[in-house]
Design brief:
The protein has 8 helices and 5 strands. It has 160 residues and is of the alpha/beta class. It has one domain (2-129): Up-down Bundle (Glutathione S-transferase Yfyf (Class Pi), Chain A, domain 2). The chain has a 5-stranded mixed sheet with strand order 3-1-2-4-5. A hairpin with a 7-residue loop joins β1 and β2 (14-17).
Amino acid sequence: MLGFRLNDEQEGFRLAVRSFAEKALAPRVGLELIELDSVTCCGAGDIHEAEPDYYLHLNARILAYAEAAECDTLLTVCNVCTLNLRQANWQLKNDPDLLARVSTNLESVGAPPYTGGVEVKHLLWLIAEGDGYERLKQAAHKGLKGPSAVASALSRLKKG
């Protein structure tokens, strides 16, 4: 997993990111990357229904590593990750007893504790906020209009 913080104009705001796409895009929109270790998938699918306690611990562990790296926000490009992490985070932040139990369990297996200090956002939400869209337009080589932008992206995928 990767993390990043915004440039000096937006100091103090650190984010954790989870994919190569974020890593490639971040510098182009003024974001500095940092490395996060020991983070896994959020569990995807219906893990929250099949094994709710495991789901909470798995996602709390991800949040805890982001928090331990002093990140304010965990950033993802995956809709399922965004959903799972936000739901788990909401449950933990709104139930102090649950948060304490899960945090104690994380510590017992060598993971950092989680205190509820991380927010979860989708990359597109970040780009849509503030001047992110303008920065993205400046970073885009072929522009962001019409089918040519999609065709350009697809042609690069086929070549790679």
